[in-house]
Design brief:
Layout: H1 2-9, H2 30-35, H3 48-52, E1 62-67, H4 73-84, H5 87-102, E2 112-115, H6 120-126, H7 132-142, E3 151-153, H8 165-172, E4 176-178, E5 188-196, H9 200-210, E6 216-224
Parallel strand pairs: 1-6, 2-5, 5-6
Antiparallel strand pairs: 3-4
Helix pairs in contact: 4-5, 5-7
Length: 226
């Protein structure tokens, strides 16, 4: 009864279409879930995400859960997660992708999950890393650690979405460092982020991680800009 009273004043709505959810629905209504552009890239290791990094970073695996289109449903989800504080979206997407990766043979030998970090000033401003809950759920599904004290961002920049491709490359260069490197030596890392566009941020992170001894890298993101 108490929960029904809460729902009366603060209805649980779909994070895409804003309709009120039924009791058996969570975060996204059934209609919107069925219309989401799911990639299934984890089933094909020569997929478009991995091809972004050909000749740039040696990857074991790479995948994204959804296809990102401007003004589309996935953009709305990520915007609400990053700028409206709806961290439950990250949890939802992490459980979804984590359950898929747990059933996929090529992801069974991953040792730990590491997020692309925010600079401490941006983290303080936003209050959270938008991929934290996403990564924790994937780590839980794979029964491996989620580690956020190894990869650090050392330069502060304005949002990458407002920059051109060339500007992004110049801005990201040498902006990440590895600390506590003993935690990742001889490990297979799943590096996670919200979105793959040019791949520059993930490449910069992978480059410094690969400088540590005998490290392997796989990538998983919420979405891919198809």
């Amino acid at each position: 009864m108490f929960q029904d009273l809460i729902n009366l004043f603060y209805p649980n709505i779909c994070q895409i279409c804003d309709v009120e959810l039924y009791k058996n629905q969570n975060i996204i209504c059934t209609n919107c879930v069925n219309e989401l552009p799911v990639t299934n890239f984890h089933l094909d290791n020569e997929n478009p995400v991995k091809k972004v990094f050909y000749g740039r970073v040696p990857l074991e695996n790479a995948t994204s859960l959804l296809i990102f289109k401007k003004k589309g449903s996935v953009q709305k989800l990520i915007h609400r997660l990053k700028y409206k504080g709806h961290q439950e979206i990250g949890t939802y997407l992490g459980k979804w992708l984590g359950s898929e990766l747990a059933k996929t043979y090529s992801y069974k030998n991953i040792d730990l999950v590491i997020p692309v970090p925010l600079h401490k000033k941006k983290l303080q401003k936003r209050g959270f890393n938008q991929v934290e809950e996403f990564g924790k759920e994937i780590a839980l599904a794979l029964n491996i650690p989620y580690i956020e004290d190894v990869l650090l961002k050392t330069s502060y920049s304005s949002t990458q979405t407002l920059k051109t491709r060339l500007a992004r490359w110049g801005n990201i260069e040498e902006s990440f460092v590895v600390v506590n490197s003993e935690k990742i030596k001889n490990k297979h890392i799943l590096l996670i982020d919200d979105l793959v566009t040019t791949g520059a941020t993930l490449e910069a992170c992978a480059d410094v991680l690969l400088e540590v001894g005998n490290v392997k890298i796989s990538i998983a993101t919420m979405a891919f800009t198809g």
